[in-house]
Each structure stands twice: as structure tokens, then as C-alpha cells.
Amino acid sequence: MKKVLVINSNPKPTELSFGLRLGEHYLAALQAEANVQVERVNLYEENIPLIDGTVLDAWGKAGAGEALSAEQTNTLGRMNEILEQFIAADVVVFITPMWNLSYPPLLKAYIDNVIIAGRTFKYTAEGPQGLLGGKKVVHIEARGGVYSEGPTTGLRFADTYLQAIMGFIGISDYENIVVEGMAATPDRAEEILASAKQRAEQSAKSLAVSMK
Predict the structure, then answer these.
(1) Is the pLDDT of residue 212 over 90?
(2) Which of 58, 105, 162, 203 suits 115 as a labelling partner, its CA being 20 to 30 A distant?
(3) Predicted local confidence at residue 42, as pLDDT
(4) d(CA 45, CA 58)
């Protein structure tokens, strides 16, 4: 059974979020077509350690074989739990809103927990090499404005960064499913969501076929 890890970085309840509604539709379509194990992580309800002075000092001590404080031991232990869960997944679904041309800060904190030298990438004479090939990432993203065309296309920093950092750890099978323009044209918001749901369904069905 394939493992699907869902990373929710939106603090809103599902019914108030276009992105979460789209994400739930995608997952329902996938589960209707494939026998998958879905595990969910809500970044606003979980302990996601930040890389701070405590963590940097702990890494330095661990590398030197020095004793860690109880706080450092607990923090690194939690970071390793997050990392192992990510590595164990066959498919990772990120559900994000676009905030100020990027994504919520807790998602960056989460990513910092899984970009670990020796575990998800390694250094070689030819440069960094990703270690997580064979996985798939689906990025379900809600944008209030329209950024898929026109003069704002270069401002899709959330998606371009996520695709780049996933590629850095070896995940080249990356897909972005977008629902956008709801704030720009609120009278068409539900119509826009309905169209995005159709695209999400097709994506889920294609993924289900590839799993068989």
C-alpha cells in the first residue's frame, strides 16, 4: 500500500479555504481510485522545530561527540521524527496558500526539518545529489490573484522554490495544481474552484493508474 503524506500549511478551517477544499477533493478522488494510506500533518497543530541557536549548537555538539542538553535531545529527536515520516512517504501532498508571494513560515520550518545532508541529499565531487528519487510531490496551491499568466508569472516564488528544493533532494516528479483569482474576481470564486476540482480529479486518477 502506497503512503501519502499530506502537509497542510493553512490555519483556516477547511470550509473557509479554497486550497483546503481543493485538497480534500483531490484526496477523495485519489482514495476512490487507489488503495493508499493517508497520513495528515497540520503544521499549525504540530510541534515543528525552528532552526535556531539551540538547534545549531546541538548540531555542532553532536558532530563533535559532545553531550547535548535535555532540550537539545528532545528537539533533535522531534526533528528526526519529522524527517523519518517524510522519507517513508511515497507521495507528499503540500497544501498551501500564497501569502505575500510565498507560503506560510511554518512550511519553511517544516522543509528545514527534511533537508538534511546524508539523509535526503549528499555532497559529491560533482555537487549536491538528491537521495529521494522515486517519490512524487503534489503542490496544491491557492492564490487570491492570478499568477499563472501575465506580468505576475515571475512572482510565483512559493511554487518555484518548492519545486526547486524538492528537486534538490532528488524528487523530480513534481506537480502543481492551482486554484487562483478568487480574490481578484470574487463573483467567480466558486466557478474557479469547480474548474480546479476537475483538474485535480484528473491528476488524482492519473496518479492512481501509475500506482497499479
Answers:
(1) no
(2) 203
(3) 98
(4) 25
Three cell numbers, residue 198: 476537475
Nearest to 82 by CA among 63, 61, 107: 107
Annotated binding residue 99: yes
H/E/C letters for each residue in 31-95?
HHHCCEEEEEEECCCCCCCCCCHHHHHHHHHHHHCCCCCHHHHHHHHHHHHHHHHHHHCCEEEEE
Residue 99: partners with Cβ closer than 8 Å, 6 or more residues away: none
Ligand-binding annotation for 79, yes or no, is: no
Structural domains present in the chain: 2-211 (3.40.50.360)
| Side-chain half-sphere exposure of 117, counting CA atoms within 13 A | 6
Confirm whether residue 59 is marked as ligand binding.
no
pLDDT tens per residue across span 68-104: 999 999 999 999 999 999 999 999 999 999 999 999 9
C-alpha cell at 68: 547535548
- Residues contacting 95, CB < 8 A, separation 6+: 6, 7, 8, 9, 10, 19, 20, 22, 23, 140, 141
176 is in an annotated binding site: no
Count of beta carbons in the 10 Å neighbourhood of residue 114: 21
CA-based angle 100:196:35, to the nearest 5?
A: 110
- pTM equals 0.95
* Total Cβ atoms within 10 A of residue 184: 13
